[in-house]
Design brief:
The chain is an all-alpha fold and about 350 residues long. It is about 75% helix and about 0% strand. Helix 5 runs antiparallel to helix 9. It is globular and about 55 Å long. The C terminus is likely disordered.
């Protein structure tokens, strides 16, 4: 039943709601940037108990800020934008060698970078981007501490506890071309770099970040999960675009109402991630569209371009996996694709 997951998701969205009400309700210059940092940090160790979650979020908060600052520094240069996201993508993908939590942390740093690259900002905004991203992550960590103090005293499981020595050993052991994590890092970096290059070549810099965003959400180390997410991402994105566009037009720029809608979207994104990926995609797409609308990006006029960018991201991911050999070196990407489509027909 999704009930417990949704309740947990809505709990995680509390600091985001508070920040959004302050930023949008008071029309602060941050314009939702701090709340977005809190959103990204909320995905880190979201499976863990409050104290462990707070420690992870506090550790990742400055990295989210650094990702945002790097995005500001590279946003207006195609070569820098491609190179920076490709390099960060390689590192983020390679984090899967350590643990799922570590991988999620890396992905959210990359997400901070690519979101910031898609904003109308310049290198002069890098200090503010660093500050907003870090503050958002620390706000999420502080709230986790409050939840711990309020009574959630569960301890983290022994196998999930952080160990620097084990992390270093895992990274060293997987530093080989035959490692699935090593190959995933290279594949993810290549795909993200290609996605950024695509929107610069096409000339849709304003909404182009939806292309690498799709790649980041869909591409996983194994074929089956990736291909499943390709379909679910497409369905969820279309649903999210329709819902967010309708809500945005209905709310007509009301800052407080949009803050509430964004908080609900964030809560469902957290809650649906472990339950149903298509619904998670619907929720997170709604959040992105509504937040962009608050920055003066008309949802109704730009829905078609966002949809096209998502389709390009799906195509890039598919091509990468069709051309890249499997970690085992036995089956081709095309063979995996045929097997996957056959499995879909049998469902």
């Amino acid at each position: 039943m999704p009930g417990p997951a949704i309740r947990r998701g809505l709990l995680l969205s509390v600091p985001i709601g508070v920040l959004l009400l302050l930023e949008l309700g008071l029309e602060l210059d941050s314009g939702g940037g701090i709340a977005t940092g809190a959103l990204l940090a909320g995905f880190v160790a979201m499976d863990g108990p409050a104290l462990a979650r707070s420690a992870w979020q506090a550790a990742v908060a400055p990295l989210i800020g650094l990702g945002a600052a790097l995005g500001a520094l590279t946003a207006n240069s195609a070569p820098l934008a491609v190179a920076s996201l490709a390099i960060v993508g390689v590192i983020a993908g390679y984090c899967s060698a350590v643990s799922l939590r570590f991988a999620i942390a890396g992905l959210n740093v990359a997400l901070s970078l690519l979101i910031t690259q898609g904003l109308p900002i310049s290198a002069a905004d890098a200090p503010e981007a660093l500050l907003f991203g870090t503050l958002g992550g620390l706000a999420q960590a502080t709230f986790s501490l409050i939840v711990y103090a309020a009574g959630e005293r569960a301890a983290d499981s022994p196998e999930d506890r952080w160990s620097t020595s084990k992390a270093v050993a895992a990274l060293r052991a997987n530093l080989t071309p035959r490692s699935q994590s090593f190959q995933h890092g290279l594949r993810l970096g290549l795909a993200l770099g290609a996605a950024v290059a695509a929107y610069w070549l096409i000339g849709i810099e304003e909404h182009g970040f939806w292309i690498p965003l799709t790649v980041l959400f869909v591409l996983r180390p194994d074929y089956d999960t990736t291909f499943d997410r390709l379909v679910l991402r497409a369905v969820g994105t279309v649903a999210g675009l329709v819902i967010a566009t309708a809500v945005s037009e209905w709310l007509a720029g009301d800052g407080i109402a949009i803050a509430i809608a964004l908080t609900i979207s964030a809560g469902f994104a957290y809650g649906m991630l472990p339950v149903q990926y298509a619904l998670f995609t619907t929720a997170v797409t709604s959040f992105a569209v509504l937040l962009a609308d608050t920055l003066g990006d008309p949802a109704l006029l730009d829905a078609e371009e966002r949809g096209a960018a998502t389709a390009i991201g799906i195509a890039i991911t598919l091509v990468i996996f069709l051309l890249w050999p499997s970690p085992a070196g036995v089956d081709s990407g095309w063979g995996r694709f045929v097997s996957w489509t056959h499995r879909l027909r049998l469902r």
